[in-house]
């Protein structure tokens, strides 16, 4: 009985693994980094961070003197 159950479970796992999809192709990590309009500047950070955002490693695309590029990265640059 256990051999039939094992064979059935193994066949189900192998069969279901053939239908695995990579949904990461539909994800755009840069959504929210670019400005939509003059008053809406995005400022969402696209890079990796350490816990609680203490270190954020990502390129700074513009050195703005004002608060326009608060995250340091803008997709439109």
UniProtKB/TrEMBL annotation:
- Extract the Gene3D superfamilies matched here: 2.70.98.10
- What GO molecular functions are on record for this protein? carbohydrate binding; mannosyl-oligosaccharide 1,2-alpha-mannosidase activity
Q: What is its EC number?
A: 3.2.1.113
Q: Domain Glycosyl hydrolase family 92 N-terminal spans what residues?
A: 26-77
Sorted UniProt keywords: Calcium, Glycosidase, Hydrolase, Signal
Keyword Transit peptide, does the record have it? no
Q: Top EC class per UniProt?
A: hydrolase
Cofactor requirements of the protein: Ca(2+)
Which stretch is the leader sequence?
A: 1-20
Top-level taxon of origin? Bacteria
What binding partners and quaternary form does the record give? Monomer.
Which named protein is this?
Alpha-1,2-mannosidase
């Amino acid at each position: 009985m256990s051999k039939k159950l094992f064979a059935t479970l193994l066949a189900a796992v192998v069969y279901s693994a053939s239908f695995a999809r990579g949904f990461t192709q539909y994800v755009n990590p840069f959504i929210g980094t670019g400005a939509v309009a003059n008053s809406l500047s995005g400022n969402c950070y696209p890079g990796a961070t350490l816990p609680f955002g203490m270190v954020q490693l990502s390129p700074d695309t513009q050195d703005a003197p004002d608060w326009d590029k608060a995250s340091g990265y803008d997709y439109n640059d």
